[in-house]
Amino acid sequence: MQEQPFKFSASVIWFPFLTVLTLWIVFWAGVRFHLDLETLGIYPRSLDGLKGVLLSPLIHGNIEHLYNNSIPLLMLLAALRFFYRDQTFFVLGYGWLLTGFITWVIGRASYHIGASSLVYLLVGFIFFKGINTRYFRLVALSFVVVLTYGSLVWYIFPNVKEGISWEGHLAGLLVGLVFAYTVKTPDFVKEYRYEWEHPDYDASQDKFMQRFDENGNFVNLPPPESEIIEPEILPSLHSTSTSHQVYFDAQRNVYVIQPKKTS
Q1: What are the C-alpha distances in Å from 54 to residues 79, 95, 113?
Q2: Could you tell me the pTM of the whole model?
Q3: Distance CA 242, CA 190 (A)
């Protein structure tokens, strides 16, 4: 297919903004009304803890925890919505559920809360999908993501930092990786506007390039004599007493036109 333009729309702004605003409203409600929201997180291998698969990304332990997740979510959700518009809700919706469920399966016996699992989901999907497509804009996006959030990879390992859910981070990254290779996106192929842009372009076969020597100097030499075909006599358009002698080269292009007198 031809090159697909990435069109900006208002949803690139409002969708990340409303998502993060929801996290702040939930946090404010918990503080304002003294709610013990942490118990709504994922508690692994407990039937009651399954509710956290839906609710845990909305819950944060303190304002620092919430702030640290808000900035990456704003940036990554905007990138997801702009570059992968049709896949946005599939990746986020199913990624949310699968990440939570995997955390419920492999997690420690503790409440797992926070949207950091979604951050790892988005980092994994955007990075690996861009590399997989090999499309220059998406590859560039992948490098921006890895340069900005590459250090997050350390937090998928246990005992790196006390109090973090490395299981949730690992689950999010794995789900993002799987989605990168299974979620269908358009085949982004660059549209070639000129012949010389094609990978198999051969300059030696280009009629225009043949007019230049190896030093780049323009030459306009007549074709070799061996390529001249016997002249053809055409009647004059203006006189019956004069005809024109027309030479053609091997490609039937006019080479020389000379008046020829007839007796």
Answers
A1: 23, 11, 11
A2: 0.74
A3: 56
Cβ 52 vs Cβ 41: under 8 Å: yes
Task: Give per-residue pLDDT as tens, 81-121.
Answer: 999 999 999 999 999 999 999 999 999 999 999 999 999 99
Q: Which residues pair with 243 in a beta bridge?
A: 235, 260
Q: List pLDDT tens digits, range 177-235.
A: 999 999 998 877 665 566 656 666 776 667 667 777 777 677 765 555 555 455 555 45
Fill in the DSSP letter of residue 218: B
For residue 255, which phi and psi values (nearest 5 degrees)?
A: -110, -55
Tell me how far apart the alpha carbons of residues 146 and 205 are, in angstroms, rounded to a whole number: 42
Distance of CA 145 to the CA centre of its chain: 12
Distances (CA, A) of 46 to 49, 107, 116, 159: 5, 11, 22, 23
Helices (H), the chain: 11-32, 52-55, 63-83, 88-106, 116-133, 136-149, 166-182
Cα torsion angle, 97, 100, 103, 105, sign: negative
> Cβ–Cβ contacts within 10 Å for residue 259, how many?
10
Q: Are 55 and 41 in contact (CB under 8 A)?
A: yes
